[in-house]
Structures are given as C-alpha cells and as structure tokens.
Design a protein that fits this description.
Length: 174
C-alpha cells in the first residue's frame, strides 16, 4: 500500500517528538485532507449547473422535504446549520436566478415560505443525479462493505460529538 502525506507528517512528528502519540492525526489529518479534496470535486460539479455548494444545499433541502408548498425560511436555516443571514444570501441569489420563490405566509405575516420553482425543481433533479454519480466516483476505491463500515464509524464519531437529530427535529424541517 502506498504512503500519503499524513504518513509523512506522522513520521516527522515521531522523529521530532518520539514520546508524542500522533496517531489521532492519522484519522483527523486524513479527514481534513479528504474534506478539502471532496469539497474541490463538489465545487467543480456544482459549477457545471451554475450553482455554489450552499445554493445546491438549499435546493436539495427543499426538494427532499417533499412539500410542493415549500418550507419556512426558519426551517430551512435550521436544516442547513448556517446562520439565517447566510440562508438569506443564498435565497437572494436563488430568487434572482428564478429557482425559488420567497413569499410571506398569508396566515402568519411574520413567516416567510420558500418553495422551488419548476425551473428550480428541474435543476435540482438533474444536479442530484450528477451529484450522487460524482460521490460514487469519489468512493470508487471502497467496496460496499468498506463504505458501510466507514459510514458506521463516522456516525459513531459524529454522535459522540453531539451531532444527533431526533424525530421532533426531523418533523420540524417540513
């Protein structure tokens, strides 16, 4: 098996500080490097659709929510885990591109409802197919069992760090 940049870093630390257990770097360093590489690949794909990653996230969230009536801007912000200001900026761009509508809820004037336009729905349907194919390509070095093991391991780590969703949170997103 070949060596990667993290192998070199860990070896260098072993020489520089022999008593230091740098083994966490073998996992977290690789996750960090992998994240940068994957982000670059995703950015390239989304640009083919004229989208930024955050814009795709908004469109995909609206699409998978399944309601043709859309969802509130607040629920959209919670599901994307970014500030409401960031969601507002993304929505501004998506409205300008004609992919979403943003309307005041007639039953509650303080609530804004965001929905996909037919053009936005068509775009996200095409983009998600390409996105999943891109993810398949990125993970091609792993077989089905390795992917399942890695997914389970990463879930365990995420849950241990408090990244948990409960059924009430999931119901709030629609």
């Amino acid at each position: 098996m070949g060596r990667d940049a993290v192998d070199l870093i860990v070896e260098q630390w072993a020489r520089a500080l022999p008593d230091l257990d740098a083994s966490p770097m073998e996992v977290l360093g690789r996750l960090s490097r992998l994240t940068r590489i994957v982000e670059r690949e995703l950015k390239k794909l989304f640009s083919e659709f004229g989208l930024e990653r955050g814009e795709f996230d908004v469109l995909a969230t609206l699409r998978r929510a399944g309601s043709p009536d859309g969802m509130t801007a607040g629920a959209l912000a919670r599901s994307s885990m970014v500030t409401s200001g960031a969601v507002t900026n993304r929505l501004d761009r998506l409205v300008a591109k004609g992919y979403v509508t943003r309307d005041v809820d007639p039953e509650n004037r303080r609530t804004v409802v965001v929905a996909l336009t037919p053009t936005g729905r068509d775009l996200v349907d095409r983009a998600i197919v390409a996105h999943v194919a891109n993810e398949q390509r990125i993970l091609a070095a792993l077989d089905r069992h390795q992917r399942a093991d890695l997914a389970a391991t990463l879930r365990t780590l995420l849950l241990s760090l408090g990244d948990e969703v409960n059924d009430a949170d999931a119901a709030d997103e629609t």
